[in-house]
Design a protein that fits this description.
- The structure is a single chain.
- The chain has about 375 residues and is an alpha/beta fold.
- It has two domains: about 190 residues, Glycogen Phosphorylase B (Rossmann fold), CATH 3.40.50; about 180 residues, Glycogen Phosphorylase B (Rossmann fold, 3-Layer(aba) Sandwich).
- Helix content is about 40%, strand content about 15%.
- It contains 13 helices and 15 strands.
- α1 crosses α13 and α10 packs across α12.
- The radius of gyration is 21 Å and the shape is globular.
- The two termini are about 20 Å apart.
Amino acid sequence: MKIGIFTDSYQPYTSGVVRSIQTFKEEFTNQGHDVYIFAPSYRNCDEESRVFRFASIPSFTNRDFSLAVPFSLRLKPVIKGLHLDLIHVHSPFLLGRLGARYARRVDIPLVFTYHTLYDQYVHYVPFAQSFTRELAQKVSRDFCNQCDMVIVPTGIIGEYLRRIGVQTQIKKVPTGIKIADFKNGDPAWLRQRYQIAPGDKILLFVGRLGQEKNIGLLLESFLLVNNEINNTTLVLVGGGPEAEELRTKANKLGLAGKVIFTGTLSPPEVINCYAGSDLFVFTSVTETQGIVIAEAKAAGLPVVAVGANGVSEMVENGLDGYLTEPEPVQFADRICLVLKNDNLREDLGRKARLSAEELSSTNCTNRLLCCYSALLEGKDGVVSSQ
């Protein structure tokens, strides 16, 4: 199968969308499929086989992010020469719309993965500052309804799309993870690298330090935890536009020295962080899935998370972690419950590792390939695509 992927973000930029594309691409390639990626260019990005880069400009709201200019004189002959079987887009904007146009032009199926609750991210939209949540929903609805199939990572996001008026068929296919990678981390690396006291319990957050991740709530909760259990350290892995503001808030709360900001780390270093921590904590309320939760579980970490949107399907409350309301006292209470009971923490961790097996990258890729096959067979008149 020849698959064309159009995306508004790709490596070296780091995000859940990029991670999803990379994971599926590797699995597709391993299974003998041809994958061609159409993505923005970035400063100093490496040349990569079968990746078509568009001229881009830095985003006004996030200088690490590039906005592709969705036009190229070379694209038409390239697309024509590839003889793609389908196009899979990962955004309803810029290159996503360009990919949709070419899918219609060459009459091949169009698949769209709805990665992001765009109405929760309007503060990042650099090309329409008057963008409203209502307009974000309209853009999502109209784009989805132009596609042959919409992929969602969790069922609750599929329900959301139905509520806002999406009629296209929707299939649930989570982004998988390479389970084995998270079993081989170095548990001593994190303490040694950041000189964390041997007796401290380590709480870990992995993700973008952005407004949508609700990390202010995490800091407020950690203050309560630290008042009750003094030998605790919070490690925040990732970079983002809120990093300095969060450092300032941590200092104002009197948590200087108790909160570690690592910045962006390499994938092996992130795996070491999972291996060296005691509990994964996650306060975001905007996730369509929350891949980092699956990673934490694969490493054997129990999870305390705010039970909103896609995260509510990633944690089985009371089995491999706890879900709470977005409220500091309740969130802190669940953290303290786990940290004070070693047997409970170990039991939650064992069950977390087991439940993560369902999200192996191979299993999830096979599910997506089944979706592709159904569309292609339907186009040939074998089965209906609706």
